Amino acid sequence: MSLSDPISNLLCIINNGIQARKDTVDVPASKLTGKVLEIFKLDGYIEDFRLMKTNVQGSYKIYLKYENGKPSILGLKRISRPGLRIYTKRDSIPRVLNGLGTAVISTSKGLMTDRDARKLRTGGEVLCFIW
Question: 120 φ, ψ to 5°?
Fold first, then answer.
């Protein structure tokens, strides 16, 4: 099955898993999904993720993170979508909750957080917010 928006699919599956208090969720694997999950793991929003070779495409098993019974992810929001792309210049990179959250930005130097994009002084497409 081909998806027109794998990032939106990833965010919906994670959000539904958190609402249902699941420990793990499965999402279809892609390179873009893997890079976004690496950012989520490095920022401490998820415990871990593993690539499961079940079929030709495979899937990622995502281990959700809870602290004292509360999820680490409080909110997810898709910003740029296939019908309306949102780009930002290096001087106007958005801050999520005044620095408490993370914006995932696709730049010419790869996928990175808003903090890394500010350090490298590069703009790009704002994919999603997580807090």
Answer: -85, -5
- Per residue in 41-62, pLDDT (tens digit) is 999 999 999 999 877 889 999 9
Whole-prediction pTM: 0.92
Count of Cβ atoms closer than 10 Å to residue 22 Cβ: 14
Q: What is the CA radius of gyration of the chain?
A: 15
How many CB atoms neighbour CB 106 within 10 A? 19
Helix (H, G, I), strand (E, B) or coil at 36: helix
Q: At what angle do helices 31-42 and 6-19 cross, to 10 degrees?
A: 50
Which tokens belong to 21? 């208090």
* Segment 1-20, tens digit of pLDDT: 457 899 999 999 999 999 99
